[in-house]
What does this fold into?
Amino acid sequence: MSSTVLIVDDERNIRRTFAMVLQAEGFEVLEAESGEIALSLLARQKVEVVILDVRLPGQDGIEILRQVKQANPDQVVVMISGHGTIATAVAATREGAFDFLEKPISKERVLVAVRNAMRQSALEREYRSLKAREEDRYKMIGESSVMQDIRTQIARAAPSSARILIYGESGTGKELVARALHAASNRKDGPFVKVNCAAIPEELIESELFGAVKGSYTGATETRDGKFLQADGGTLFLDEVGDMSLRAQSKVLRALQEGEIEKVGGADTQKVDVRVLAATNKKLVEEVAAERFREDLFFRLNVLPIEVPPLRERREDIPLLVRHFLARYCRENNLPAKEITDEALNLLMEVPWPGNVRELNNVVERLAIMSSGARIGVSELTRVGGLASSGGSEQGILTGAEGLPAGTDMVEIRPLLPAEVLHLGGLVEARRFFEAACIREAMEVANGNVSQAARLLGIDRTNLHKKIQSYGLAVEKDDGRTGGES
It folds into this structure.
């Protein structure tokens, strides 16, 4: 599809000359003899590049440029003038012109300017698309009361310079809260740098955070900046800060207290202006009591605590989340739009989701890609395994299994709800799951002895061995002589 260029000049011959040059190169051309006509055209039609004369009847080109950029800041405009001055060029650049050409203009100069402008226009479109996708990926979804409360906390806390500690189970969306805090702060134009403290080996965490000089350790082939310097002027997000080593904690504490860092192997200190946000799925008060986390660092980070609720405490948000994820993954995978039935949504709302929003996200991505039709119902959930979460819990299948009085002959078995059966992958998988849970419990009671566990379960040891292998259960020991059957 050819790109469109709008030529705005009050001289007909100049418009015709530009049009001939550009059309010969495959561009579509529109013409306007005044700024007012140009503005009207731009309001109705998409144009990649505007070639705009400075001197026009009525409003001059600089004023028209100003109005064009106000209406569409991403519109690429090339200014031309037969009476160009440095002051005019500076004024045009200040108002957002991409280039400034002086008449007479050669054919080659026109084409170079337009092609460069086209590339700029394409880059602007790509940037907007990537930015929109990034914003969509980190958008906080939910209208429940707990989510409204979190948004209120973010709105109050973000403009301040206070440090914030974000609590929540894995998969609840702590990073989304951190990004929302950054976006609403006065540092939003600065960098947002994330560090996953749990994913970096202890021996590398210091160099990752503070940088290292060349030769300071094996593999340090060049001097490099750490995350604190990369986040200078912006926000540093310490994810899973509870997994940081005590040695690294002491250095982070110094950086927070002094506002300066020292690279590994270096002797000089460097000032940094960083707002630190931290997140953890641990109870740091207990970590402090166990001396696994520094109390002074805890108080430094825990100025404003924000608790992110698990998904089970905001089930009413599940339909919004499912539809949001479904639209995203259809779009990202170039799939036709799909919808999900109310019955399927109701089942998803009954699932415990131990992995929280992250687990739900993964399930919906699977449904978007693997479901065959445009409408996802209960049968599709079962077929694709949309309810067979890998994080499913064994709790609740047996009731009265613990603390039974001596001589009790029967364990009361609570029937599973249909949603729980589907969550396990259907009736066949639920039966396998139940049997595996019984075997695992017997093996624990028997302290890993297969022969003894087989006697407790009332089955042959060989048969139990086969089941253990089938379910992929770990066996610590197997002494067939200990009361076993041979």
User: Anything to note?
Assistant: The first strand starts at residue 4 and ends at 8. Confidence is low (pLDDT under 50) at residues 389-412, 480-486. Residues 107-137 form the longest helix (31 residues).
